[in-house]
Amino acid sequence: MDSANTPRPAGAKRIMKYKKARSPSELKKDDDAEEKIAKLRKKGLLIEEWNLDDIEADLTWCGRSGSPTKVNRIQSVILTAGEYKKIEPTDNDLHKLVHELIEDHTIG
Amino acid sequence: MIEVNRTGEVWVFAEQQRGKLNEVSIELLGRARMLAEKLAVKVAAVLPGHQVSILAEELAAYGADKIYLVDNPLLAEYQTNSYARVLCELITRYKPQIVLYGATPLGRDLAPRIASAMKAGLTADCTDLQIEDFVDPSSKKTHHNLLQQIRPAFGGNIIATIVNYDRWPQMATVREGVMPMPERDGQLEAEVVTETVGITPDELPLKILDRHHAQKRVNLKASRIIVAGGAGLGSRDNFKLVWDLANALGGAPAGSRAAVDLGFIDHDYQIGQTGTTVRPALYIAVGVSGAIQHTAGMSESARIVAINNDPDATIFQIAHYGITGDLNDIVPKLIKAIRTKC
């Protein structure tokens, strides 16, 4: 063997234990939904679901209309071609660039 | 939340740790002044802490008309609960229109806590703040003089302008270096309002056992010349070209996010949206593509020189000088030219 096997993911035991867990919403289309829900609950594999009433949510704070901040405007970022001074990668041009930066007191 | 108060002040949370003001608070005072002038109201700084009254003078010198000072031994070290309690109580008492925070680790912890407690709106990481009217598209009602909270979104592909017209105060966080530093004027004075907020030790869930302050290796904001390298350098070893060019110029080396993620340079040297924002006299971008997240942190440099082998690289769109070619050839030549001339 040239190298070790890929290790199991962390929490592999938990994945195996809960891979059959379901929520009531997932099961509601089944004919025997009630029976399945009861079985999963007994095994501790029923994923509890809460609705807005369960958490006593204030609807005026939910969704986009409930957000205290609103989007006024969206602008796409379009980069237009800027005008830059093209410098050739030659000794001569690079010397000129350095000279220009010294002249305008950027460096030196 | 507080009711809409058109005469409310513009506040800046004066972040300090161990008696030292965070620079972003000073930057925000400059922007707060501009906003307050448009609204014809005052600028105030909120200064919680212990034995920090000496900082009031600095805040005044940078433009605060008023300082709300809350001095309490229990505020000596930052804790979310105590500081949030102070801000919430003062906001409830004085009803400011706008409250600005630095988007520092502390500010990012504090501001959302206050927004949640006050049921007010908060926009994080704003790159600009303006005052304008807003017309609600559904009700057609015009809300005058609202804080326009401008920030990039969706990976920087859009700029969104956010408003909060009824769940006040209007609050925003702004990153360090985004707003220009205002001029200091030692002649300016401010009214200091000493406030009391009852905090008991039982309300502080954490006990600070020890404190270790790690100094940043480099102060990029203070550097006049910066040479930044990107992923185009190819390797950590090759990044030596950036260090050599920076040394030749007497400047500071830096890197793009890509270079940092690839391990070419440490995070302390990162420029960009998730790094430092700089405005040096000269910025040389070596092998940097020019992604918007990077240019957001350096586009206001006085002179930008871009070196890239791709003539279509985005960096050239904001550069003043562009050199297309192999950086492994260009950078040594540039170093030689600098050493010959200087």
Q: Which oligomeric form is depicted?
A: heterodimer
Structural class, judged by helices and strands of chain B? alpha/beta
Could you please say which CATH topology of the largest domain in chain B applies here?
Rossmann fold
Give me the Rg of chain A, rounded.
32 Å
Mean pLDDT of chain B: 92
Unreliable parts of chain A: none
Structural class of chain A: alpha+beta
Unreliable stretches of chain B: none
Number of helices of chain A: 4
Radius of gyration of chain B: 22 Å
Strand content of chain B: 25-35%
Number of domains of chain B: 2
* Shape, principal axes of CA atoms of chain B: globular
User: What global shape of chain A is seen?
Assistant: elongated
Q: How far from one another are the termini of chain B?
A: 60 Å
Number of strands of chain B: 17
The residue fraction in helices of chain A comes out at 25-40%
Question: Explain this structure to me?
Answer:
The complex is a heterodimer of chains A (108) and B (342). By secondary structure, chain A is of the alpha+beta class. Chain A is 32% helix and 9% strand. Chain A contains four helices and two strands, in the order H-H-H-E-E-H. Chain A has helices spanning 12-18, 24-27, 33-43, 91-103; strands spanning 70-76, 85-87. Chain A is elongated. With 342 residues, chain B is an alpha/beta fold. Chain B folds into two domains: 10-203, Rossmann fold (3-Layer(aba) Sandwich), CATH 3.40.50; 220-341, TPP-binding domain (Rossmann fold, 3-Layer(aba) Sandwich), CATH 3.40.50. Chain B has helices at residues 23-39, 55-61, 80-94, 105-118, 240-249, 257-261, 292-295, 327-341; strands at 10-13, 16-17, 20-21, 43-49, 66-71, 98-102, 122-126, 128-135, 142-153, 158-163, 170-174, 191-195, 225-229, 252-255, 282-286, 303-308, 321-324. In chain B, strands 7-11-6-1-4-5-12 form a seven-stranded parallel sheet, with helices on both faces. In chain B, strands 14-13-15-16-17 form a five-stranded parallel sheet. In chain B, a hairpin with a 2-residue loop joins strand 2 (16-17) and strand 3 (20-21). In chain B, helix 3 crosses helix 4 (105-118). The longest helix of chain B has 17 residues, at 23-39. Chain B is globular, with a radius of gyration of 22 Å. Chain A binds chain B through residues 61, 67-77, 79-82, 84-91, 94-95, 97-99, 101-102, 106-108, and chain B through 1, 115, 119-123, 134, 136, 148-149, 152-153, 156-167, 225, 249, 281-282, 292, 302-303, 305-306, 314, 316-326, 329-330, 333-334, 336-338, 340-342.
